[in-house]
Amino acid sequence: AQKVTQAQTEISVVEKEDVTLDCVYETRDTTYYLFWYKQPPSGELVFLIRRNSFDEQNEISGRYSWNFQKSTSSFNFTITASQVVDSAVYFCALRETSGSRLTFGEGTQLTVNP
Amino acid sequence: NAGVTQTPKFRILKIGQSMTLQCAQDMNHNYMYWYRQDPGMGLKLIYYSVGAGITDKGEVPNGYNVSRSTTEDFPLRLELAAPSQTSVYFCASIPNRDRGPGAEQFFGPGTRLTVL
């Protein structure tokens, strides 16, 4: 069965600090997809990134970067120079190619203080 | 396109009451999903549908029913509301052209349900 673990329940940083959100996953499939979503205080879910298991290249998008390491089953998310607007709950999710289900981690509440 | 819409936004039910949460999408997506999010938790899949007339159970289907008579609509029914069903409910869909496992799910804004 697939499982996603986000061990950090809450993280609090001061603006401009860098912060890394951890995500560890379990799956029996050899091919799968990983996702990150952002849920701001308004409650909607915002898609951030998708990564397939064949592509271990790290990705950078502005202040966001993602580190995918298949050897450790991790897909960590780093925000550089954090801003107050980054305050949200961030979810990591996994979908195996053999199924239709998107399995979410429990989320990490990030608070960026001015 | 309006995307994925959900109604109502908020609802308070008494124990034992029933209600239907509405979900609609105008993007002609075949795949649609219902999730619930309990306070401080991640999303758990209740039911999903891969097309009109086809539905399947997710992780937490007990206490819920769904139907999919059209491509656009995927209502979620609570027959006998219980306090354990207090949650935020999200509907989602996937574009047909990307309906493989890497497809991004488009989420509705959510329905906040309280059962007292």
Strand segment tally of chain B: 11
Question: Which regions of chain A contain 5 or more consecutive residues with pLDDT less than 50?
Answer: none
From the N-terminal CA to the C-terminal CA of chain B, the straight-line distance is 36 Å
Largest interface: A-B, 24 and 24 residues
Q: What is the N-to-C succession of helices and strands of chain A?
A: EEEEEEEEEEEE
Share of helix among residues of chain B? under 10%
Overall SS class of chain A: mainly beta
Query: Count of helical segments of chain A?
Result: 0
Note the main sheet of chain B.
Answer: 7 strands, mixed
Could you tell me the radius of gyration of chain B in angstroms? Answer: 13 Å
Low-confidence stretches of chain B: none
Textual characterization of the structure:
The complex is a heterodimer of chains A (114) and B (116). Chain A has no helices and twelve strands. Chain A has 114 residues and is mainly β. In chain A, the strands form three sheets. In chain A, strands 2, 5, 6, 10, 11 and 12 form a six-stranded mixed sheet that branches. Chain A starts with a strand and ends with a strand. In chain B, a hairpin with a 2-residue loop joins strand 5 (43-51) and strand 6. In chain B, strands 2, 4, 5, 6, 9, 10 and 11 form a seven-stranded mixed sheet that branches. In chain B, strands 1-3-8-7 form a four-stranded antiparallel sheet, with no helix packed on it. The model of chain B has no long low-confidence stretch (mean pLDDT 90). Chain B contains no helices and eleven strands. Chain B is globular and about 40 Å long. Chain A binds chain B through residues 4, 31-33, 35, 43-45, 47, 50, 52, 91, 95-97, 99-107, and chain B through 31, 33, 40-45, 48, 50, 56, 58-59, 88, 90, 100-102, 104-107, 109-110.
How are the elements arranged and paired?
The complex is a heterodimer of chains A (114) and B (116).
Chain A: E1 3-5, E2 10-14, E3 19-21, E4 24-26, E5 32-39, E6 46-52, E7 59-61, E8 64-69, E9 74-79, E10 88-96, E11 103-104, E12 108-113
Parallel strand pairs in A: 2-12
Antiparallel strand pairs in A: 1-4, 3-9, 5-6, 5-10, 7-8, 8-9, 10-11, 10-12
Chain B: E1 4-7, E2 10-13, E3 19-25, E4 31-37, E5 43-51, E6 54-57, E7 64-66, E8 76-78, E9 87-94, E10 106-107, E11 111-115
Parallel strand pairs in B: 2-11
Antiparallel strand pairs in B: 1-3, 3-8, 4-5, 4-9, 5-6, 7-8, 9-10, 9-11
